């Protein structure tokens, strides 16, 4: 990746951040008492995006954002009062900028539709600006493409040339070839910036064949060039030859006086060059006549207009303007950095750090073990300090990946606003627990399922205002997003005060589809879970948003892939709560280390309830049976022998231990040979080959260098419970 | 590398290999001899592998010289790279030679 790409990448991510900020400010705008601060924030965001886009010559972005900025400027000055309509418009504009930035990232250009949409938005912006503005001296938002080249330039009093193309005159220095310059290469490059409409190669000083030196350059060109590039970019093509050659670049629609200056500056006869300009289409014959006339006039009046001043007055040298823009840009950027107080780190580097810290933890554990064996007190002492520090470093490193879920939640403000409008419902979004932290990768992956649940709640759950009134509910529906930590997991709840799930309907549908048999007893929890079946939909009408029978199964699958679960609780007529439980992070685990035969296993500590000894009096033990029960203080606890489950062989020791684990309220026992103790470790994912193995979720390396497998408790619990119920059914028969 | 051959119809000069600043000096001398040799010279460019502006200048020189002494110079069998260079510089009409444009 070259440097420009990197800087551009930075610009893209920065712009996205600014756009997010802009959106949340816009959404809050209506509620706020003092709107000035928000408006300044919104303006600043647009301004920064536009400014940086200018530096990268992203014309689409510059043009569009400029329109937005003009309107925002007026709003900021109080000339236009913010209202709902304006907010919607600006939100749409924000989306369009987002789209443009996406295009920059994927190096695609706007589709015709997007382009039209952008134009329509700009038009509306202008109209809004004019309607709302009380100021009579209205400035039209500049929609032309050559902002960097033509803006902020005063023109001398002479008519403009009608041509839409650039005119470029080049006279090469005789030594150009000797400096390694090939004019052909430069033209090839120029052709990538636009279309060379016409080119005239000139060699007025070409000597006779005998005098000609083949290593001397005698050429010059007049080019009529059609391009959306800005002047800086076009100048860039001639950068290497400018010092010793003559290059004149006239922007489209330059003044005739510019052409006069050009004609004067070039070595050819005035008339000859004028002809060429006409031929190449840069000037019309009338314009040429006017120009030559004007030139004669100036000469006859012996007005000595210095060439330099003409040039500067006519915007031939926009660099100072541009430079000051860049300086200003940098100032804004510096201020911004101080505000956020954070730095951007490549996720890959962070992963590398966490990986290294993981290795450090393992190496530390190993060294600590050896120090224990040596019996050297001082060594043991110093290692205990080291171990503590390493653990702190590990925690801090893992903390780096933790982000608050609030950012994800806030995105839904917009979704709720838009969808509610579309559905003709009045819905407010209540967010709680926004400060709950979880791993960034989890946050990213949960966003889609969450979106689906939110849309689902709005579409199916919350009723239309009139229906709500009939049911004696407030017309405004409530959608809540809540997050909290619960025994080492994060719980995200999407709840609404809508209609809730219609059990009868679901049951009927399930029977129709043959998912359950007639007369089969099924509890409410199971009924609710039916909605996660593939292709299951109880929607009466298929809407834009949902009801096509796709989705909930996908939601469930996505969440399961994150080692999480989703369940639904519902009270008919009152609302529904969807709860998603997810591990906080995919990278670390507090484990309980156990041994069976010579193998080590880690059980996630947050799921361990207690350890009990297995003896004959309290259980139905059959050593050959994979599964049995024990009597746990009068409770029946199903348990499974991991030895048999994983086919480890060997003999069951006299004393077995049972670890009681709980998952989602179900308790089961796991029988093992030996308990080792608590153990903290970094999870290493299993390779693809092992991905199908049930009951194992990952691996880790012990201090001794041995590999320990991490047990996948949810799947084990489920497995035991299904065997249990199967047995129960079997024994009944 | 310029080779020169006299046929019944006239003279044909054939250029093989690159026409660039690197061999411009050498080529120029070969050109001068070829130009002197015949009133009707055909210049076969089919085997030109690479051409830069210096090479183009040699062709311009040749053409101008022949115009000057009222001899004929026809460029034939432009290779792809020559044709592309002519197009970029807008010189196709200046040389005014028949060019066979092959389908890409």
Order the strands across the largest sheet of chain A as they lie in space: 14-18-19-17-16-15
The number of E-state strands of chain A comes to 22
Report the span from N to C terminus of chain A: 69 Å
Shape of chain A: extended
Please mark out the parts of chain A with pLDDT under 50 across 5 or more consecutive residues, or reply none: 133-157, 301-333, 541-550
What is the name of the CATH architecture of chain B?
A: 2-Layer Sandwich
Amount of beta strand of chain B:
25-35%
Strand coverage percent of chain A:
15-25%
Note the overall shape of chain B.
globular
Count of runs of 4 or more consecutive helical residues of chain A: 23
Multimerization status? heterodimer
Give the low-pLDDT segments of chain B. Answer: none
pLDDT averaged over residues of chain A: 75
CATH homologous superfamily of chain B, by name? Answer: STAS domain
Domain Histidine kinase (chain A): 386-586
GO cellular component, one term (chain A): cytoplasm
Function (chain A): Involved in the transmission of sensory signals from the chemoreceptors to the flagellar motors. CheA is autophosphorylated; it can transfer its phosphate group to either CheB or CheY.
EC number (chain A): 2.7.13.3
Plain-language structure description:
- The complex is a heterodimer of chains A (733) and B (104).
- Chain A has 733 residues and is of the alpha+beta class.
- Chain A folds into six domains: 3-129, HPT domain (Four Helix Bundle (Hemerythrin (Met), subunit A), Up-down Bundle); 162-254, 2-Layer Sandwich (Alpha-Beta Plaits); 268-342, no CATH class; 347-400; 403-583, Histidine kinase-like ATPase, C-terminal domain (Heat Shock Protein 90, 2-Layer Sandwich); 588-731, OB fold (Dihydrolipoamide Acetyltransferase, E2P).
- Chain A has 23 helices and 22 strands.
- Chain A has a six-stranded mixed β-sheet with strand order 14-18-19-17-16-15.
- Mean pLDDT of chain A is 75; it is low at 133-157, 301-333 and 541-550.
- Chain B has four helices and four strands, in the order ββαβαβαα.
- Chain B has helices at residues 24-37, 53-68, 80-89, 92-95, and strands spanning 2-6, 11-19, 40-51, 72-76.
- The N and C termini of chain B lie far apart (27 Å).
- At the A-B interface, helix 7 and strand 2 of A face helix 1, helix 2 and helix 3 of B.
- Chain A: Residues 1-104 form the HPt domain.
- Chain A: Involved in the transmission of sensory signals from the chemoreceptors to the flagellar motors. CheA is autophosphorylated; it can transfer its phosphate group to either CheB or CheY.
- Chain A: InterPro entries: Bact_Chemotaxis_CheA, CheA-like_dim, CheA-like_homodim_sf, CheW-like_dom_sf, CheW-lke_dom, HATPase_C_sf, HATPase_dom, His_kinase_dom.
């Amino acid at each position: 990746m070259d440097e420009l790409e990197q800087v551009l990448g930075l610009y893209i991510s920065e712009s996205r951040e600014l756009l997010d900020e802009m959106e949340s400010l816009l959404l809050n705008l209506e509620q706020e008492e003092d709107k000035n601060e928000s408006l300044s924030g919104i303006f600043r965001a647009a301004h920064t995006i536009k400014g940086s886009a200018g530096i990268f010559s992203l014309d689409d972005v510059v043009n569009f954002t400029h329109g937005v900025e003009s309107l925002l400027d007026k709003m900021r000055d109080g000339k236009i009062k913010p209202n709902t309509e304006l907010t919607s418009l600006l939100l749409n504009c924000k989306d369009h900028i987002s789209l443009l930035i996406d295009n920059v990232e994927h190096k695609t250009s706007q589709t015709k539709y997007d382009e039209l949409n952008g134009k329509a938005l700009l038009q509306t912006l202008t109209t809004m600006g004019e309607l709302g503005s009380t100021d009579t001296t209205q400035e039209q938002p500049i929609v032309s493409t050559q902002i960097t080249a033509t803006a902020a330039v005063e023109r001398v009093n002479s008519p403009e040339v009608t041509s839409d193309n650039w005119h470029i005159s080049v006279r090469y220095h005789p030594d150009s070839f000797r400096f390694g310059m090939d004019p052909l290469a430069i033209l090839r490059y120029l052709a990538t910036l636009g279309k060379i409409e016409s080119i005239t190669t000139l060699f007025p000083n070409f000597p006779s064949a005998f005098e000609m030196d083949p290593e001397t350059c005698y050429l010059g060109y007049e080019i009529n060039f059609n391009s959306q590039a800005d002047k800086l970019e076009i100048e860039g093509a001639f950068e290497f030859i400018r010092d010793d050659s003559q290059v004149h670049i006239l922007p489209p629609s330059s003044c005739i006086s510019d052409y006069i200056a050009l004609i004067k500056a070039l070595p050819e006869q005035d008339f000859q060059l004028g002809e060429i300009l006409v031929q190449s289409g840069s000037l019309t014959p009338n314009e040429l006549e006017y120009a030559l006339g004007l030139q004669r006039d100036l000469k006859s009046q012996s007005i000595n207009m210095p060439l330099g001043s003409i040039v500067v007055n006519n915007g031939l040298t926009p660099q100072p303007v541009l430079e000051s823009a860049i300086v200003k840009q940098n100032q804004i950027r510096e201020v911004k950095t101080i505000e956020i107080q954070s730095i951007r780190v490549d996720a890959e580097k962070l992963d590398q750090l966490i990986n290294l810290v993981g290795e450090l933890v393992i190496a530390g554990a190993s060294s600590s073990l050896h120090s224990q064996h040596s019996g050297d007190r001082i060594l043991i002492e110093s290692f205990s300090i080291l171990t503590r520090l390493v653990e702190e470093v590990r925690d801090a490193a893992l903390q780096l990946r933790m982000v608050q879920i609030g950012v994800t939640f806030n995105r839904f403000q917009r979704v709720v606003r838009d969808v509610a409008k579309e559905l003709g419902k009045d819905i407010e979004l209540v967010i709680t627990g926004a400060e709950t932290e979880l791993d960034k990768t989890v946050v990213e992956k949960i966003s889609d399922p969450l979106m689906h649940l939110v849309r689902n709640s709005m579409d199916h759950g919350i009723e239309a205002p009139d229906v709500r009134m009939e049911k004696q509910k407030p017309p405004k529906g409530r959608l809540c997003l809540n997050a909290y930590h619960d025994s080492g997991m994060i719980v995200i709840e999407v709840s609404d005060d809508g209609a809730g799930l219609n059990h009868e309907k679901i049951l009927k549908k399930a029977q129709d589809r043959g998912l359950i048999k007639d007369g089969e007893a099924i509890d409410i929890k199971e009924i609710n879970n039916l909605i996660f079946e593939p292709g299951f939909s109880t929607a009466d009408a298929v809407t834009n948003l949902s009801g096509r029978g796709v989705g909930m199964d996908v939601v469930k699958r996505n969440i399961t892939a994150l080692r999480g679960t989703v369940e639904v609780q519902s009270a008919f007529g009152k609302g529904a709560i969807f709860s998603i439980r997810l591990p906080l992070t995919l990278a670390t685990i507090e484990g309980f280390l156990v041994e069976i035969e010579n193998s080590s296993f880690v059980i996630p500590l947050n799921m361990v309830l207690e350890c009990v000894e297995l003896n004959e009096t309290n259980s139905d033990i059959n050593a050959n049976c994979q599964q049995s029960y024990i009597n746990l203080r009068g409770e029946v606890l199903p348990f499974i022998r991991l030895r048999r489950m994983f086919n480890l062989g060997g003999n069951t020791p006299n004393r077995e231990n049972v670890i009681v684990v709980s998952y989602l309220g179900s308790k089961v026992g796991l029988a093992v040979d030996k308990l080792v103790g608590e153990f903290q470790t970094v999870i290493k994912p299993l390779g693809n080959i092992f991905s199908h193995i049930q009951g194992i979720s990952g691996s880790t390396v012990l201090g001794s260098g041995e590999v320990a497998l991490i047990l996948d408790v949810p799947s084990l619990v489920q497995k035991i419970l299904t065997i249990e119920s199967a047995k129960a059914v079997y024994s009944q028969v | 590398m310029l080779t020169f051959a006299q046929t019944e119809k006239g003279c044909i000069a054939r250029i093989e290999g690159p026409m660039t600043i690197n061999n411009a000096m050498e080529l120029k001398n070969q050109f001068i001899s070829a130009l002197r040799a015949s009133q009707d010279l055909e210049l076969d460019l089919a085997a030109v592998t690479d051409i830069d502006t210096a090479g183009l200048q040699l062709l311009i020189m040749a053409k101008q010289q022949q115009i000057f002494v009222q001899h004929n110079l026809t460029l034939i069998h432009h290779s792809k790279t020559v044709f592309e260079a002519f197009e970029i510089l807008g010189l196709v009409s200046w040389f005014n030679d028949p060019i066979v444009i092959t389908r890409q």
